[in-house]
User: Which sequence fits this backbone?
């Protein structure tokens, strides 16, 4: 910065400031005691920050609407999900068939919402099972530490090296594809990531002073785990769960593509998209478009929601 | 360092052994003999076939024979196409899949890093938002959906590129684009966030104070450190690209290993499924190991011999 020759007209040296610019203010004891901002719990604060993230909120709203439609969508449609109507195959979207009909004349609108049920169910169940196993395994490894931790982490290291989708494919080839076997196959090695996160968190938090304080007041292990460790590890765990759902939905769609997806009479989005691959080349775009659109947007919604939660649940970002 | 490598090698061998054992258990637990569906075989022929493939031995012996064949890199014949062995298929298909994979990685890394740098340099500006919006979309759209869209729009509607097959560079553009978009998006996001972090570091301020041009700072000073996380996720990306080749090769009729693999799944050609799984798992596990080693060598802050967890 260059020094100017003349001080600007807003430039005063401390001695230049006239006394009458200052006025005396009485000390207000009450005002000093007032809390500047409302006291918020961790969750209220996180929620406030999440609401401010418009993209994440859009994702959340999309998901809520999707769930509502997957529950009530089939009810407002006059068509049966598997009713074939061959004379009406490949009808473009119209007032009768909002999303058109597919190669067997089935109503794509109805099938899309049934597909949503299957895909969301697979995603949520996978996340839930990963969560249950991961929190148990990672919690024990992190809390016990030492030798136990060492052995448990070696096992994880070995499992982590297994290529996820290849193992899933292998299991499904033998177990035979069905709703339950797909969920089992997705979670057999899927929980490892969650366990690693929980273990890392617990390992870090268990050495904090407030846990020590709890211990010195005589808290037993279950109480420490329940009251001190779990609430403080929840942030990264929730984020991980939000990101597990889309990857499970993707994996299911991918498996459908290999012919290892949900079998009829159920139809997931992946199955619908796979069935209509040939149709798109002959111009019947709607049979692929709707399931593909919903797979992509559901994954998008979960991804942005996960990103938003990551920021919202990080106490370091608290303003 | 040496201790770390030995430890990792041991874990690698155990992981491989689990995969091999898993495939064996699965193969044995499949009901019926693989020759049940052969037409025109009477019991004597079946017994002979089973004896030929050692299927009449007790499981323990079969298991060791299987281990031996895997170690000697012999995955046996295909059941559905008896004239071919799994090795034949791997020999023919793998080079093509490898080519597709390598090109994809190169494209994904270069475009992802470039996108990430631009987003970081124009932090909170339009370019940043556009790049990151593009990245989230890229992560969200499954590669097979993207592949079909590309074929329908660019190959069928506008006839810019060939629809399928693997003959010339023009044939490679669509499959590589479909396969590279996901990894590219992941790399772009990662590069952006580490780049933002690196750019606030003191040595960057120092470089700026020396009067270096912004681009020189980025290329010579910031990029080196910003790329480290990309190296760490390389293993995961490789796994994603590898499994991605299955569907991409199926859609684009690329005659790589993925196509054989998908066919073998549909035809329940168990030796091919098992052989390919073992081969690909070994490939991936070794790659992961190499990536880890490279990481230790590239980043002097990582001490590989350090004991204990994170």
Assistant:
């Amino acid at each position: 910065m260059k020094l100017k020759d003349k001080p600007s007209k807003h430039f005063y040296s401390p001695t230049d400031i006239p006394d009458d610019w200052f006025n005396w203010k009485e000390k207000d004891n009450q005002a000093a005691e007032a809390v500047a901002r409302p006291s918020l719990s961790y969750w209220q604060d996180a929620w406030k920050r999440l609401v401010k993230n418009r993209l994440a909120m859009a994702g959340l709203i999309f998901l809520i609407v999707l769930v509502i439609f997957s529950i009530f969508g089939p009810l407002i449609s006059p068509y049966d999900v598997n009713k074939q109507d061959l004379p009406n195959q490949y009808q473009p979207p119209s007032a009768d068939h909002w999303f058109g009909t597919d190669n067997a004349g089935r109503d794509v609108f109805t099938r899309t919402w049934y597909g949503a049920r299957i895909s969301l169910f697979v995603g949520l169940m996978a996340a839930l099972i990963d969560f249950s196993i991961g929190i148990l395994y990672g919690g024990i490894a992190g809390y016990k530490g030492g030798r136990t931790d060492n052995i448990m982490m070696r096992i994880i290291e070995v499992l982590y090296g297994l290529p996820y989708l290849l193992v899933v494919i292998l299991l499904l080839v033998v177990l035979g594809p069905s709703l339950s076997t797909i969920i089992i196959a997705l979670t057999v090695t899927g929980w490892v990531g969650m366990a690693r996160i929980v273990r890392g968190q617990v390992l870090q938090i268990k050495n904090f002073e407030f846990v020590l304080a709890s211990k010195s007041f005589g808290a037993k292990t279950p109480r420490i785990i329940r009251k001190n460790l779990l609430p403080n590890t929840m942030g990264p765990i929730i984020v991980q769960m939000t990101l597990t759902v889309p990857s499970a939905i993707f994996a299911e769609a991918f498996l459908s593509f290999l012919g290892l997806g949900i079998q009829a009479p159920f139809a997931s989005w992946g199955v619908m998209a796979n069935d209509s691959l040939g149709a798109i080349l002959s111009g019947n775009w709607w049979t692929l478009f709707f399931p593909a659109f919903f797979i992509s947007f559901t994954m998008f919604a979960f991804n942005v929601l996960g990103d938003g939660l990551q920021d919202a649940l990080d106490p370091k970002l608290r303003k | 360092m040496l201790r770390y490598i030995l430890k990792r090698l041991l874990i690698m061998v155990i992981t491989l052994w689990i995969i091999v054992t898993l495939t064996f258990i699965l193969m044995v637990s499949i009901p019926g003999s693989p020759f049940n569906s052969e037409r025109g075989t009477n019991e004597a022929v079946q017994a002979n076939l089973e004896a030929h493939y050692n299927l009449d031995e007790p499981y323990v012996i079969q298991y060791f024979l299987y281990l031996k064949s895997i170690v000697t890199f012999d995955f046996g014949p295909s059941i559905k196409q008896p004239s071919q062995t799994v090795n034949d298929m791997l020999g023919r298909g793998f080079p093509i899949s490898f080519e597709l994979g390598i090109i994809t990685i190169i494209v994904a890394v270069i475009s992802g890093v470039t996108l990430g740098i631009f987003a970081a340099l124009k932090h909170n500006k339009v370019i940043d938002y556009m790049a990151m919006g593009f990245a989230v979309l890229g992560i969200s759209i499954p590669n097979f959906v993207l592949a079909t869209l590309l074929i329908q729009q660019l190959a069928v509607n506008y006839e810019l590129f060939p629809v399928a097959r693997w003959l010339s560079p023009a044939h490679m553009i669509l499959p590589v684009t479909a396969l590279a978009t996901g990894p590219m998006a992941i790399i772009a996001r990662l590069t952006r966030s580490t780049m933002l972090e690196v750019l606030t570091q003191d040595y960057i301020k120092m470089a700026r104070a020396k009067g270096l041009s912004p681009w020189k700072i980025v290329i010579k000073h910031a990029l080196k450190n910003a790329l480290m996380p990309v190296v760490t996720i390389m293993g995961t990306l490789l796994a994603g690209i590898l499994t991605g080749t299955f569907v991409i090769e199926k859609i684009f009729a690329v005659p790589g290993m993925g196509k054989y693999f998908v066919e073998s799944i549909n035809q329940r050609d168990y030796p091919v499924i098992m052989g390919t799984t073992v081969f690909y798992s070994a490939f991936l596990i070794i790659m992961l190991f190499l990536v880890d080693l490279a990481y230790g060598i590239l980043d002097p802050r990582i001490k590989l011999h350090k004991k204990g967890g994170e």
